[in-house]
Amino acid sequence: MLYGNQNVRAALSRMAEGKRLAQCILFYGDTGLGKKTLAGWFASRLLCTEPDAPCGSCKNCRTIQQRVHPDVTWVPHSGKLGGFSVETVRAICADAVIAPNSGARKVYIFDDCDKMDVRAQNILLKIIEEPPAFAYFIFTAAARQALLPTILSRLVPFGLSQCTEEETMQALAAQGFSPEDVQEAVGCFHGNIGQCRGYLEDETVRRLVALTKEAVHCIISKREYDLLGVFYRIGSDRAQAARLIEMLGQVFRDGMALRLGQDLPCTGCDREGALALAGKLSLADGQRYHQCIGKAYAAVSANVNVQLILSALCAELMAGR
Ligand SMILES: [Zn+2]
């Protein structure tokens, strides 16, 4: 059972039924929105020969789901950054000109292309400029900009969006999570099924949500040293610091939206905190927070010392309050 992005699936189905089926497709959007699930679904749509394709139960569908179908390749990542090596991409280009093993089509899935380097992309360009008639290429990335303009111009892009909160609750309940847990997860990560599941399954995510909420409280009640203490608990973990800063930024954005009376659904993990911020923030505060959080996020993505960034962020968030 697939949840959400019905419009994208409908468009893909129409495309698959028509005569002009694009051979290179990109799914992009935040982590957790189901890009890989949709890539697998579309591979099944292309290879399932049942009338109600993808039927989900024929041999093609089942082996695609298990990732063992001989004509569907999930291209392996390599290197510390999780990109694709030049050798891997060359091997895929060579393989893509060989006729399918069992069916009429071959599918190559390059997932998480955000760290794919320019060399690998340039090698790939040759094959996606003129792919053999049976070859299909599916890419997934958080942002379209991860790919070179020359590559992008060959792809049909589909942006994925969040599910409704009801769909998310149904999806999580179907996976066996309790109603209380589901409620809590959806309160933090709304219609992003993958991130809700992350919250339910990964203690680190729950800890980061708790730290974010605590940080918001410290800021509201102007407790600078307590805020430093919250940040200190991140240690030197760059990925966790980036996530904390990102989640803090979302709560501020929600706070500003509420302050401006915009009736938008919350994007962050702390609606109560956002409401409290909305009651206290001036527009100038909001703008300043937005800037210093953006700066801290950029620094943490570069190689600056994590605790230095967080201390500086703490000072800036407290300045003038
Ligand atoms: Zn099938």
Q: Can you characterise this structure?
A:
The protein folds into 3 domains: 6-159, P-loop containing nucleotide triphosphate hydrolases (Rossmann fold), CATH 3.40.50.300; 165-199; 202-318, Zinc Finger, Delta Prime, domain 3 (Up-down Bundle), CATH 1.20.272.10. It has helices at residues 6-17, 35-47, 59-65, 86-95, 118-129, 149-152, 165-174, 179-189, 193-201, 203-220, 224-232, 238-259, 271-280, 283-301, 306-318; strands at 24-28, 72-74, 106-110, 135-141, 156-159. It has a 5-stranded parallel sheet with strand order 2-3-4-1-5, covered by helices on one side. The radius of gyration is 22 Å and the shape is globular. The model has no long low-confidence stretch (mean pLDDT 93). The protein is α/β, with parallel strands linked by helices and 321 residues long. Helix content is 56%, strand content 7%. It has 15 helices and 5 strands. The site of zinc ion (ZN) has 8 residues, from helix 3.
